[in-house]
Amino acid sequence: MKKTKIFAISGSTRGNSSNYRILKFISEQISDWFELEIFEELDQLPHFNPDLDNENPPEKVAAFRTKIENADGVLICTPEYVFSLPGSLKNALEWCVSTTIFSDKKVGLITASASGEMAHEQLILIMKTLQAQLDENTQLLMQGIRGKINEEGKIINGETNIALQEFISNFENLFLVY
């Protein structure tokens, strides 16, 4: 049986960030019906330039768009930087505005940061603008994340573990509804 393809994006470009570790945790927890690929080239996308956003965008942008287009769903896990989305994630999403690759695409959103409220609101707004298919049960704001996950990616906070397990279950259910 064909596995459901999930393309995961960490909004942090820092090596072994909390957001990357959360995506790794999810990839290990998600059922055998899913194949999760974590995008690790966010910092390699060129700065958005409308003059280059045409039939032949930069190679890295075209590859990024193709990954999204070929995925059955997208999972974004991001920190908040200075009460906003990280510039690298915003840049990547800007490269998608002129396309329809997110239209009706099933998307899960996690904001894991010290506070994260502003970035979470902005991410939801951007994904609605891109016409992604959002579900309240697959949006998660995890505040104070550094004290809830260790360097090995183990969730060390019981409530956080429960919230993530619930999120995973809800995200999987998006694809299992007939």
Automatic annotation (TrEMBL):
The answer to whether the entry has keyword GTP-binding is no
Keyword Oxidoreductase belongs to the record: yes
Q: Which UniProt keywords apply?
A: Oxidoreductase
Q: Which GO terms describe its cellular component?
A: cytosol
Which top-rank group of organisms is this from? Bacteria
Positions of the NADPH-dependent FMN reductase-like domain: 4-134
Molecular function (GO) terms for this protein are: flavin reductase (NADH) activity; FMN binding
Question: Which Enzyme Commission number(s) are on file for it?
Answer: 1.5.1.36
First-level EC class: oxidoreductase
Name of the featured protein: NADH-dependent flavin reductase subunit 1
Q: Which organism is it from?
A: Flavobacterium bizetiae
